[in-house]
Amino acid sequence: MSSKLVCSICGSEKSIPVCCEKSMMVKDGFLLCCCSDECGYQPIPECCGKKMEYIYH
Ligand SMILES: [Zn+2]
Ligand SMILES: [Zn+2]
């Protein structure tokens, strides 16, 4: 899997944070761990004042 977070303004890229040895997924504007809502839950990183976009490959 090579999903990543990309800034739509400046194009900078960031790898998806990992929790429980899996890439976190995006739901309702937050990054969630696949295993449990309580395990990993963090805001999507921002760049250029906007939330970065989650790009699937
Ligand atoms: Zn986890
Ligand atoms: Zn940016």
Instruction: Report the strand count.
Output: 10
**Largest beta sheet: strand ordering:** 2-1-10
Q: What's the number of helices?
A: 0
Overall 3D geometry? globular
Q: Tell me the major beta sheet.
A: 3 strands, antiparallel
Radius of gyration: 11 Å
Annotation keywords:
single chain; 57 residues; mainly beta; three-stranded antiparallel beta sheet; 10 strands; binds zinc ion
How is this fold's topology laid out?
Layout: E1 4-6, E2 13-15, E3 18-19, E4 22-23, E5 25-27, E6 30-32, E7 41-43, E8 46-47, E9 50-51, E10 53-55
Antiparallel strand pairs: 1-2, 1-10, 3-4, 5-6, 6-7, 8-9
This protein binds zinc ion (ZN) (2 copies).
Summarize the model shown.
With 57 residues, this protein is mainly β. The chain has no helices and 10 strands. Strand 6 and strand 7 (41-43) form a beta hairpin.
How would you describe this structure to a colleague?
The protein contains no helices and ten strands. With 57 residues, the protein is mainly β. It has one domain (4-55). A three-stranded antiparallel sheet has the order 2-1-10, with no helix packed on it. Strands 5-6-7 form a three-stranded antiparallel sheet, with no helix packed on it. Strands 3-4 form a two-stranded antiparallel sheet. Strand 3 and strand 4 form a beta hairpin. It is globular and about 30 Å long. The mean pLDDT is 89. The structure holds zinc ion (ZN) (2 copies).
